[in-house]
Amino acid sequence: MSLKITNLNDMGKLFLIPLTALVFLMGKFIVKEIRDNYPLYSTLLDNRKSIKDSVIDIANPKPSNKNFLINDKIIAKHITLSKDVVFISEVKVRNYKSFGFKLRCNELCQTPFFRYDSDGPAHRNFDENLSFEDQQVQTPHFNRFNKDGVSIAYQTKELKDAKSKVALEDINLCVVHFCNESNVRVKKNDFPSITILSKTLGLTLLEDDPNAGVHFI
Amino acid sequence: MIFQNIYNDIARSFNGLWKYKERGKSLEIISPFVTTSQKFVSVFLTEREGEYIVSDGAWIAEGLYENPFDRTIDCFEKIIQHYKNSCGINETYNLNKASVFFKKTSSIISVPSLVLDLCNFVCAIVSISNVEFADKEIDNQNRFNQNARNFLQRLRPKKSWDEWHFNEYLDSKREVRPSAILRKKNSNVVLLNFITGSNYNYFRTNISRANMIFELADKSNESVYIENKIALIDNKARGYDLSHFSIWLEHLLSKPNSKKIDWSDRKALQKI
Questions:
Q1: Which of A76, B20, B66, B67 is disulfide-compatible with A85, CB 3.0–4.6 A?
Q2: Parent domain of A169
Q3: What is the per-residue burial (b if ≥16 Cβ within 10 Å, else e) of B182-192?
Q4: 3-state class of B27 per DSSP?
Q5: Do residue B36 and residue A12 have CB atoms under 8 angstroms apart?
Q6: Is the pLDDT at B219 greater than 60, yes or no?
Q7: Using CA atoms, how far apart are residues A78 and A85, in angstroms rounded to an integer?
Q8: How much is the pTM?
Q9: Does residue A174 sit within a domain?
Q10: Do B101 and B212 lie in a common domain?
């Protein structure tokens, strides 16, 4: 069967075929920059990182998604590397229990290299050595990368324990857990605290139902 | 029945992936459907005035599957409309004006079928949203071209009368147009072609284009003035994978006799 390209739109479709196949054949996303610089990645994550700010106020609308507030101005200094790490905090506008923390190093890659999600979809750890059910990791969970550059979700023992999991729904308790897990401190040995829209009336919004207030016409 | 044990295990394993979370008046149903971003699809079941509603909870629009959601991309919008029509999906908005995709029914026995349609829809749209569409590719290429031009313009020329020219033809017949031309005082020129791509197919295409331009340059009346031909390779690009295009690159370097400079070694351009 011959394929005749008659216009630019057809050419666009032709480009789409191998690209789509590539994404599906891989079966997983690979961050090449992390895979190819794994010792750097491990050093970046495992060693101490220090921030100056003892209070992180999440107050700005996320430019790419107005449903979230973000603070992505906090810089963490690595103890040995000269590369800056951005400490990103996000919270959902209508549900302050839905939040996330991320660490990104622009000199390594644009994708955050470590993250915590309190809410959102379950992650699949694509590993044929795991049973099918064990491949599913629900939120809340952390994500770090393995040496193949693949994002792996996991729950700490605190997140697996029912009581402490409920306690960690509090963003200020959780930020301490995140800092412990990623080795971030304020100055030498303190932890940051989080405020949300501190310059406003300070109503705490906890709308957990994504169907609430939606008119299904 | 052959393979009965395996069949039973498949059914049991898939069944074990269905999970739920209670969220106010909605039930989050975590399904075994997985996006290419390795996220299990969740849908949200609620009841309003005797009708059962299954929605995506605006999770696609909010990017919770680690997905972009840019409906200004024409191809992507057409795909959304295709899936909406074929799965019978409706669209509304939440209080933050984010798109909510849903189906509803008054028949309780239809709920599983709605869940199937929504899961299919979410899985397809999220996975496709991560495809690099051709028009996105043009943006990527333009970005590299701009970075390369900015770098070249900042380069201190060997002699102050050397000049960079971009998007200009080499020849009087206006047929040969490389990415950049360095025109020197002695009338000699250096031709540059910028080569990038978000996957190896685009790299191959751009190498072929550079090859064609360099060969045509050699055939032009102005060929006697060509001092050098350089392929500036974006070796930091996502699609940079020599194993997939080394033959193309070797041909470019040997046939029209050009040189290669990697973007990471771009300081070498000071010496041309």
A1: A76
A2: 27-196
A3: bbbeeeebbbb
A4: strand
A5: no
A6: yes
A7: 7
A8: 0.71
A9: yes
A10: no
- Percentage of chain A surpassing pLDDT 70? 86
Contact state of A209 with B24 under an 8 Å Cβ cutoff: yes
User: A15-19, A25-29, A41-45, B166-170 — which is least confidently predicted?
Assistant: A15-19
Closest residue in A to B76 (Cα) is: A16
In CATH, what number is assigned to the domain containing residue B59? Answer: 3.30.1460
Q: Do A212 and B25 touch (CB under 8 A)?
A: yes
Residue B19, strand partner residues: B30
Q: What are phi and psi of B32, to 5 degrees?
A: -80, 0
Burial per residue of A195-205, b for 16 or more beta-carbon CB atoms within 10 angstroms, e otherwise: ebbeeeeeeee
A81-94: pLDDT as tens digits: 888 899 999 999 98
| Number of domains, chain B | 2
Nearest to B260 by CA among B229, B216, B219: B229
How far does B272 lie from chain A, in Å, by closest CA?
28
Q: What is the pLDDT confidence band of residue B4, given thresholds at 50, 70 and 90? A: very high
> Hey, which residues does B194 pair with through a beta bridge?
B232
Both B235 and B150 in a single domain? Answer: yes
Q: Which of residues 177-216 of A touch B (CB under 8 A)?
A: 207-216
Say what the pLDDT of residue B184 is. 87
Is A106 at the interface with chain B, CB within 8 A? no
Strands A49-51 and A65-78: antiparallel
pLDDT tens per residue, range B56-68: 999 999 999 999 8
Checking if the pLDDT of A27 tops 50, the result is: no
CB A153 within 8 A of CB A137: yes
Express each pLDDT in A136-180 by its tens digit: 999 999 999 999 999 999 999 999 999 999 999 999 999 999 999
Given B129, B162, B193, which residue is the final one in a domain? B129
* CA neighbor of A186 nearest in space, from A71, A53, A89, A48: A53
ipTM of the complex: 0.83
Q: Summarize the confidence of residues B82-103 as an average pLDDT.
A: 94
Q: Which residues of A touch B50 (CB under 8 A)?
A: none
Q: Tell me: do B140 and B267 sit in the same domain.
A: yes
Q: For B63, which residue in chain A has the nearest alpha carbon?
A: A65
Show the domain range for B219. Answer: 134-271
- The residue to which tokens 């629009």 are assigned: B61
Which tokens in the block code for residue B223? 């060929």
Segment A189-209 mean pLDDT: 86
Cβ-count burial of A139 within 10 angstroms (0-12 exposed, 13-18 middle, 19+ buried)?
buried
What's the number of domains chain A is made of? 1
